[in-house]
Design brief:
This protein has helices spanning 28-38, 42-54, 66-80, and strands at 2-13, 16-24. The chain is of the alpha+beta class. The chain has one domain. Strands 1-2 form a two-stranded antiparallel ribbon. Helix 1 crosses helix 2.
């Protein structure tokens, strides 16, 4: 799943002027590598995650306006949230709980 965000102001990413960014759905690997790069810095973690999902360097996102950054944050949350079932309820989590051991 991907989500394309229209930017209110164009930015140069990887040397190309763009007016939209497409974020792909995050993976466990994205989360692990971003956490490793950012350490305990939550802001750097978020910036690294967004850059990885957009296919650019974290420093490229420094030029994005705060309004557009807010759009990227919201898109990230939508892409990383569980999808509700057809009835609108969250799907059940299946796992090895204490009751199954």
């Amino acid at each position: 799943m991907n989500e394309t965000i229209k930017l209110s102001s164009p930015v140069s990413l990887n040397g190309v002027l763009v007016n939209q960014l497409t974020l792909r759905e995050p993976t466990v690997g994205d989360q692990l590598s971003a956490r490793k790069m950012a350490g305990n810095d939550d802001e750097q973690f978020e910036l690294t995650m967004l850059a990885n999902l957009a296919g650019c360097a974290p420093t490229d996102l420094h030029q994005v306006t705060l309004r557009d950054y807010d759009k990227l944050q919201k898109a990230y949350l939508r892409l990383s949230s569980p999808e509700p079932s057809a009835d609108g309820k969250q799907p059940a989590v299946v796992g090895m709980g204490a009751e199954t051991r």
